[in-house]
């Protein structure tokens, strides 16, 4: 039963059966079979399944909360039997991409350190991909899950995106009434080391791929955000960066009936990535649990 619960816990943390299968080094069909067996054992449906996303049922949410505690207690007991009482302490080295680190992570760190005074944090704000094994990093926070099977990933936040521009830019340039109109506008672009840039739009069953160009490209979102606020162009960026500027009308949503993303499927999910071990160090687990607790209140901009 405990092994089934561990698979369930990983599915929730990863956000999908396929991502959980990579973390567990199992076939997706085996992961699905384990979840089916667990649901049969407890006579409860844990997930609302669809082709687009995996959502916990109300019973599944309750079971996850209790199961997480059960796994925590189980790991703690095993650690105690090995002479380690699992008190969160020590140096925690974290790498996070620059914009998310500045806006979402750093405001939370003082509260975490107050809660766990024996933990010390060394923080790197870096948009480059890091190697957790060679760069001496405990946790990396990135968009998307790792391809390295030696790493595990915990889902933190869905990376919703919105198309925006400043009121001054909108006033001075031609109207944007459909996605194709963007081809005649200056678009502020996230660097992905490709010659051409595309933004993707969907509305019900309609999907459009629009080639966009502009005079500013950046690996991080902050320079693009500042440029958009000054009226330099049209921006497609994460809602967690845009929220305060939409609320005070410094930026305005464009094409609100369309869902706009950088990728064909979605803009991706934000994960905490850490080295795969059967029993994560208490200070690593504590920090990731803290982030999940704090970030779950971050909802999409309406």
UniProtKB/TrEMBL annotation:
UniProt keyword list: DNA-binding, Transcription, Transcription regulation
Descriptive protein name: LysR family transcriptional regulator
Protein family per UniProt: Belongs to the LysR transcriptional regulatory family.
PROSITE patterns per UniProt: HTH_LYSR (PS50931)
TM ranges: none
CDD domains: PBP2_CrgA_like (cd08422)
GO molecular function annotations of the record: DNA binding; DNA-binding transcription factor activity
Keyword flag Nucleus: no
HTH lysR-type domain sequence ranges: 1-57
Keyword Transcription: yes
Alphabetical list of InterPro entries matching this protein: LysR-type_TF_proteobact-type (IPR058163), LysR_HTH_N (IPR000847), LysR_subst-bd (IPR005119), WH-like_DNA-bd_sf (IPR036388), WH_DNA-bd_sf (IPR036390)
Taxonomy, superkingdom: Bacteria
Lineage, uppermost ranks: Bacteria, Pseudomonadati, Pseudomonadota, Gammaproteobacteria, Vibrionales
């Amino acid at each position: 039963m405990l092994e089934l619960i561990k698979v369930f816990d990983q599915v929730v943390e990863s956000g999908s059966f396929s991502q959980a299968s990579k973390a567990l080094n199992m076939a997706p069909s085996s992961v699905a079979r384990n979840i089916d067996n667990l649901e049969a054992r407890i006579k409860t449906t844990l997930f609302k399944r669809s082709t687009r996303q995996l959502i916990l049922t109300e019973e599944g949410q309750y079971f996850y909360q209790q199961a997480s505690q059960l796994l925590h207690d189980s790991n703690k007991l095993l650690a105690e039997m090995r002479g380690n009482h699992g008190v969160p302490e020590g140096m925690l080295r974290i790498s996070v991409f620059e914009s998310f680190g500045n806006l979402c992570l750093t405001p939370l760190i003082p509260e975490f350190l107050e809660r766990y005074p024996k933990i010390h944090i060394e923080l790197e704000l870096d948009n480059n991909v890091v190697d957790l094994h060679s760069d001496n990093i405990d946790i990396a926070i990135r968009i998307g899950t790792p391809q390295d099977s030696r790493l595990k990933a915990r889902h933190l936040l869905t990376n919703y995106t919105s198309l925006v521009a400043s009121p001054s830019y909108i006033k001075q340039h031609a109207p944007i009434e459909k996605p194709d109109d963007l081809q005649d506008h200056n678009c502020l672009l996230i660097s992905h080391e490709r010659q051409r840039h595309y933004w993707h739009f969907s509305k019900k069953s309609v999907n459009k791929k629009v080639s966009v160009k502009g005079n500013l490209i950046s690996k991080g979102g902050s320079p693009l955000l500042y440029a958009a606020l000054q009226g330099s162009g049209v921006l497609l960026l994460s809602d967690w960066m845009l929220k305060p500027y939409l609320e005070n009308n410094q930026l305005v949503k464009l094409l609100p009936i369309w869902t706009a993303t950088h990728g064909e499927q979605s803009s991706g999910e934000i994960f905490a990535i850490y080295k795969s071990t059967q029993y994560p160090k208490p200070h690593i687990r504590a920090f990731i649990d803290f982030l999940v607790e704090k970030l779950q209140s971050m909802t999409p901009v309406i």
